[in-house]
């Protein structure tokens, strides 16, 4: 069973997997760093993880500089959580007051924003004395605007408009208006830094942020310093955590080795398998859930847009397209799925005795069933994928000893027919349980990630970014933002299970067989059944073991 998702920049394979993934690891200190500061807005992570550590001293200096600045939380507009941002139609129907069909370059229908020129949409993002944009609009525009311009270009335009609004309120008679608009501008910056923090890896973004903060600090009002300090602390902490995370991934990726190579140099290591490390399948399912949620925590909302970015026909900047395609955390999560599938296949193919292989299959069936009960559909599908890989599925004598009733039920739940109807039904049930949860465990929803990517891809491909009149097709981006915001709600859930570092270390770092090594182990366990398999077996023994 094989499923291919046709994605422009990489290929997702969810049943038969042919690229051995890097070995990844997440550390507790980065998780704590990202979650130690709670706020009304979510702390969501984003894409590119490059070069942050080189800018950290400058960021720290900026924080110290802004420590003298101002902000008052009590006067800031309040914002709802992501789960309350969108209704079933795809967006908040109470966002807009205008009943006109067109207003200032923005087009509405039944009070809902459908489209607008890019400049008008930017102006709609910036608050003034009488207006603050709804958080639904802020999230949707910041998410989708990167299809048309760099974040630093948008930041420059926003800063320019904010400065213009401030200039209009600088007279003595307008001090009350100044007091009204300043917290709104700072709230917009807080929304941006909390929801898309890694946009601010770019020094141009940080420079604009610093300049705008300095301008607001130059006035007489000094009552907002505390919240500016908190905003910058949170931003710097996230950028530092991302830098640390990148270093961990790079280190572990560089030390990844093939399982067969290890077995040839250290034959005694064959005695160690997943069941000796964790004999309880329910505990393993819980540790898999820890890993899934930690990886999800590093995927920023913008990566879902940047994964499918295409050249804007009205954009003359030829460098814009390639620079916007920053999806490293998203791709790392797909690699984790691949690794888990290979790990399952490796653990099944490695035992010499048939009864041990059968016991390992039954063990992973129990793990998969518990993943389903938890709501961890991504690990569930990875386990099913590993058990359906050809080197495992061909072990007929082994499977004859397995009680497969429970596995058949799980395969039925994840059956790809009718566009994964059974899975989608189960996912809706888990999502509803999460909304009415009475415990942390009931809040867990971890979707089958490659299918989520496919859904977003087809949503993106099915509608144009711009209308024939050049307007941005904002109706499309409402629906895109709805899907992404739902995922963002799921990924912020704290894992309620006790962490077992030994088990997690094994899952993340133990070497796994390559595809060829899996086939060789399979043939060594149950001999070839036809001439094609015999020829392949001989070839693999020669190339991998040096035997004829």
UniProtKB/TrEMBL annotation:
Keywords: Guanine-nucleotide releasing factor. InterPro entries: Ras-like_GEF, Ras-like_Gua-exchang_fac_N, Ras_G-nucl-exch_fac_CS, Ras_GEF_dom_sf, RASGEF_cat_dom, RASGEF_cat_dom_sf. Residues 109-236 form the N-terminal Ras-GEF domain. Residues 280-528 form the Ras-GEF domain. CDD domains: RasGEF, REM. One of its GO terms (biological process) is Ras protein signal transduction. GO terms for molecular function: guanyl-nucleotide exchange factor activity. The keyword Acetylation does not apply. It holds the Pfam family RasGEF_N. GO terms for cellular component: plasma membrane. This is RasGEF domain family, member 1B.
């Amino acid at each position: 069973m094989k499923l291919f998702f046709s994605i422009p920049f990489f290929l997702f394979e969810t049943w038969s997997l042919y690229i051995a993934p890097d070995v990844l690891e997440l550390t507790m200190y980065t998780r704590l760093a990202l979650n130690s500061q709670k706020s009304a807005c979510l702390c969501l992570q984003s894409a590119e993880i490059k070069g942050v550590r080189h800018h950290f001293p400058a960021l720290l200096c900026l924080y110290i500089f802004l420590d003298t600045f101002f902000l008052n939380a009590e006067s800031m507009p309040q914002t709802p959580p992501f789960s309350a941002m969108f209704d079933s139609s795809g967006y908040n129907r109470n966002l807009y007051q205008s009943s006109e069909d067109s207003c200032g370059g923005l087009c509405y229908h039944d009070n809902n924003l459908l489209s607008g020129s890019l400049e008008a949409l930017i102006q709609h993002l910036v608050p003034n004395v009488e207006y603050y944009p709804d958080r639904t609009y802020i999230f949707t525009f910041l998410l989708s605007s990167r299809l048309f311009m760099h974040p630093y270009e948008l930041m420059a335009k926003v800063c320019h408009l904010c400065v213009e609004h401030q200039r209009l309120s600088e007279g003595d008679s307008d001090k009350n208006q100044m007091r009204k608009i300043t917290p709104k501008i700072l709230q917009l910056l807080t929304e941006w830094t909390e929801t898309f923090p890694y946009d601010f890896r770019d020094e141009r973004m940080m420079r604009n942020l610093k300049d705008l903060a300095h301008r607001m600090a130059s006035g007489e009002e000094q009552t907002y310093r505390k919240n500016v300090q908190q905003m910058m602390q949170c931003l710097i902490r996230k950028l530092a955590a991302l830098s640390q995370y990148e270093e961990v991934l790079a280190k572990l990726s560089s030390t990844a080795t093939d399982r067969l190579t290890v077995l040839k140099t250290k034959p005694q290591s064959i005695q160690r398998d997943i069941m000796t490390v964790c004999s309880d399948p329910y505990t393993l399912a819980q540790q898999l859930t820890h890993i899934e949620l930690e990886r999800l925590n590093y995927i920023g909302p913008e990566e879902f847009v940047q994964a499918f970015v295409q050249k804007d026909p009205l954009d003359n900047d030829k460098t814009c397209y390639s620079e916007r395609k920053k999806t490293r955390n998203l791709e790392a999560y797909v690699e984790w799925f691949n690794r888990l599938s290979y790990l399952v296949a490796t653990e099944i193919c490695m035992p010499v005795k048939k009864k041990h292989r059968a016991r390992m299959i039954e063990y992973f069936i129990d793990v998969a069933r518990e993943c389903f009960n938890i709501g961890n559909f991504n690990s569930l599908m990875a386990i099913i994928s590993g058990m359906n890989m050809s080197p495992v599925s061909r072990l007929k004598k082994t499977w004859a000893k397995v009680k497969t009733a429970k596995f058949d039920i799980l395969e039925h739940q994840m059956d790809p027919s009718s566009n994964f109807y059974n899975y989608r039904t189960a996912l809706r049930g888990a999502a509803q349980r999460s909304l009415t949860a009475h415990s942390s465990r009931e809040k867990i929803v971890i979707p089958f990630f490659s299918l989520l990517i496919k859904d977003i891809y087809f949503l993106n491909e099915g509608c144009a970014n711009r209308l024939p009149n050049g307007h941005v097709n904002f109706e499309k981006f409402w629906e895109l933002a709805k899907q992404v915001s739902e995922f963002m709600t799921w990924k912020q859930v704290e894992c309620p299970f006790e962490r077992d570092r030994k088990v997690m270390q094994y899952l993340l770092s133990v070497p796994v067989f390559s595809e060829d090594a899996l086939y060789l182990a399979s043939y060594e366990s149950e001999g070839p059944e036809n001439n094609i398999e015999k020829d392949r077996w001989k070839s693999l023994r020669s190339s991998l073991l040096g035997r004829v």
